[in-house]
Structures are given as structure tokens and as C-alpha cells.
Amino acid sequence: MSQISSIVPSGKYGVWADVSPLINSSLHETIKDMYAIVTIKDSFYYVSSSDSYVVKFMVNSPKDFLMTRGYIKLSAYGALSMKFFDNKLYVCCDGGWQGNSTTCLQIIDLAVDFLTVVPIVINKTAYMPDYAFFQDILIVDSNHVYILLGGSFGGTKKGTIVYYTNIDNVANPTFWIKVIEYDRASVSYLWKIYHEAGKLYVVGSDRMIIFDSLPTSLTNPNRTIDFSSTLRSVAQII
User: Fold this and answer.
1) What does the pLDDT read at residue 66?
2) What is the Cα–Cα distance from 101 to 156, expressed in whole angstroms?
3) 62-107 residue pLDDT tens
4) Which of 99, 115, 157, 168 would bridge with 153, disulfide CB 3.0–4.6 Å?
5) Alpha carbon 216 to chain centroid distance?
């Protein structure tokens, strides 16, 4: 069996960026599958490039046993977030520190053998801003999917942008609809999008915006909260 240590070169760090929920396995009713993003870094700080992997684990719940079952290397640097929906994994890659042309959204079909599956890659389109890199994806249900892009470009442009689509059109950005875009003066270290009790929460830089219902077109938020300093982490909204 492959081990995580085999994908982390000597002198580098393997950072767990996100994990999937436990998924029923075909092996046995007591066994679950779990997937994790592991990003390779030179240090715990930002680096110019970071190879990223999706690692598959087998979890034996009664015995609390975890075993690595294999991994795939993503074609883009800097995988940050991952969501599971309808037997697929959706992975956002920002392209590495300050982003680059590899920034993308990747879709992994778990119906295909994990060791041979080739992820579908969704790249930025010409109408997306230069500063925008894939940061997070939220799948509320098959009719409400939100893709969050954000970043800084040339040290001057810093912003956050959210697109709405449905699950059938995630792989076709032509059908994505912008619901919010805003710029901030502060450098951002964090972009996240959450859903709770029918509300949508978008976090970028030193600002959080809140929609009281799920937007499907360009919409003004119901509330805006500005913080005194740039956010570097945020707890799950509950």
C-alpha cells in the first residue's frame, strides 16, 4: 500500500488542506472511504509552487483504523479546498503563491478506478479578472453551486468574486453567473464560502458579506461586516 510519506520529499512538508466526509465503501459495510488534499510545501509559509495530491484512505470505523489506499497527483499547484457531491470530488487549486496559469477547478469521478481516473479540469475564462484564482466551492444542492475566486495581482488588485451555477454546468463556466464582486485594500490570506440555514456567507480579506437567501443573479448582500484586520482563519459558520 502506498504511504503519504512517499509523496513528501525529504526536507519538505505535507500539509493537509481539506478532507471529504466518510463515504460508504464497496468493500464492507463497516468500512468507509475518505479523501484528503495533501499539498507539498518548502515551508509552512507561502511558496512559489506547491504540488498537490488527493489521497484515498480506508477507514474501519469499529476498530478506528486508517489505511492509505492510493493517491493521484493533481495537474495544478496549490489545492486548497474540496467538496464531495454525487460520487464526485470537486477540488479548487489556486495555482500556487500569487497564483498562475494552473489555477483551476478539478472534478474527480469516483465511479472510475481511483488510481487511473483523470480529473476534469476547468480553467479560468477570458472574462474572469486577472487577480482571481480558484479558492473554494460550495455545493448546497444540485441547483445551487457557488464557486469563489479571489486573490491579488501585481500587489495592487485584490478582490473576491462569486459565481453561481448548477451541478450540471459546473464544468462549463460559460453558464456561470456572477452574484457578487468586491475589492479591498487589504491583502487577503483567506477566502471561504459557507451556507447555513438558508444564508450564504462569503469571506474575503477583511470583509464578510451575508445573503439572507441563496442568490442566483448579481445581488447586493443583506449585510456586510468589515473587520479591523485581515482574516487569516475563520471557524465554520454554525
Assistant:
1) 75
2) 19
3) 666 678 888 999 998 888 899 999 999 999 998 876 556 789 999 9
4) 157
5) 20
